[in-house]
Automatic annotation (TrEMBL):
<dbReference type="Pfam" id="PF08239">
    <property type="entry name" value="SH3_3"/>
</dbReference>
<protein>
    <recommendedName>
        <fullName>SH3b domain-containing protein</fullName>
    </recommendedName>
</protein>
<feature type="region of interest" description="Disordered">
    <location>
        <begin position="328"/>
        <end position="348"/>
    </location>
</feature>
<feature type="domain" description="SH3b">
    <location>
        <begin position="408"/>
        <end position="472"/>
    </location>
</feature>
<dbReference type="InterPro" id="IPR003646">
    <property type="entry name" value="SH3-like_bac-type"/>
</dbReference>
<feature type="compositionally biased region" description="Basic and acidic residues">
    <location>
        <begin position="331"/>
        <end position="345"/>
    </location>
</feature>
Amino acid sequence: MVENLDKKALNMKKLLLSLTILLIGMPTICWGNGACTTAMPFLKMGMGVRASAMGKAFCAVANDDSAVHYNPAGLGQIESGQMSLEYTKWLEDVSYTGVSGVYHGFGGFANMLLTNEIQTTTEAQPQGTGKTFREMDGIFGVSGGISLTNHISVGGTGKVYSQEIGNENAKGFAGDIGFLCKTKQMGLGLVVQNIGTKMRFIDRKFALPTTIRTGLAWTGSWLTISGEMANILPEKKTVACVGLEGWLANVIALRCGYDSEDGHGPTAGFGVRLKNVKIDYAFVSYEKFEAIHRLSVSVKFSSRNVPESLNAVVTERIPEQTRIAPVAEETTQRRDQQLDSDKKAAPQAPCSYDQWLADIKEKEKVRQKQSSVLATATVATMPSIPAALRTGTSSVPTLQPAAGQPTKQVKTITITNDNAPIFSGPGTKYSVITTVPEGVELILVDDSKQWYYQVKLPDGRLGWISYVNCQK
């Protein structure tokens, strides 16, 4: 009886080792003598199609729902709600399914790896006993991130993992801690993954693949380059990965990368974005196994509210064809003259949104002072001046059109994608004037073109934006 139990345990250990190598495609998790050094290699598998196509070099990027896997600190800087569904036909009849979502600094995910039915064999019946079993690995977790400053955020993830092979199973808990610093173009990420206790399977304990990742990323108007170093503590080894992503008209993304971990290699992929829906594909190669193809569909379903003060600075809501009181009219003329002066003095080279907004705010302060002085000098003789002008605030007064003259409706568009490029003409062949973050509202000047809208920027310049990056 004891001998049979020992054989069963030995067979299950061999089966676990074989499935780990075969299914996950990570030969380096085991030493040459067959002793497995870490448990749940599923935890090391790249989650997220976009990140996988970039060689898993993503902890310094972390700007979509994949942040729940690569760096939860990124959740503190994501401005829109997102959800993704991923499916992969893995090695040797193994399927992988994952779903993840983020909303206002919080996220959740569920990932499952499942094999087809496998014949049970014994030493006495090597061709099979007629019984079957399957392996099922699962990870379920929640994440949260918060911004400490405009550039720095931190976050954490708690997850439950399980592994089931036939009638044997194991469960446990693990966590991730992340840090992310992002400036205009640079990103620096640090994350510690899979912090937890050892997993017990049958009569042995296996350490989790606790990993420390550090990454650096550079992001331009259409190009992202990222690199990452990962130190897998239980295995005492360091691996590197690099990734690149380029966008064409902010609609089509081309990606490639390289993962130096043993058994891995080059990666590639692409993405297509139409309004709030994005489809991503990744090609992941292995040295000793066939390459796999990964596919996902993502949806953006909400945005964080942009403060009214920001919209007041970014948009001009004064109707053009109105007749108002003399003082208000003079104030409007002064503002128009100042706007024309700003337009002439505006730099023609591309500028960052932060610099752009800082300039606008500074000019708005000057205009407020001018309006305040003008209103104070005339308030005694002009009691009908609107309250907004008398107090010198930046809010726009309600203006009444002349009798019999209709009010001109000001059309606006709202940016739906982050870092949306503004072109100098209606097409990607024209130069990029600047990029605008998600949620900003701009005045619509011309919507007669088929694919592009002409908009008015806060500094008075005119530009063109693709219809896929905004909505009326």
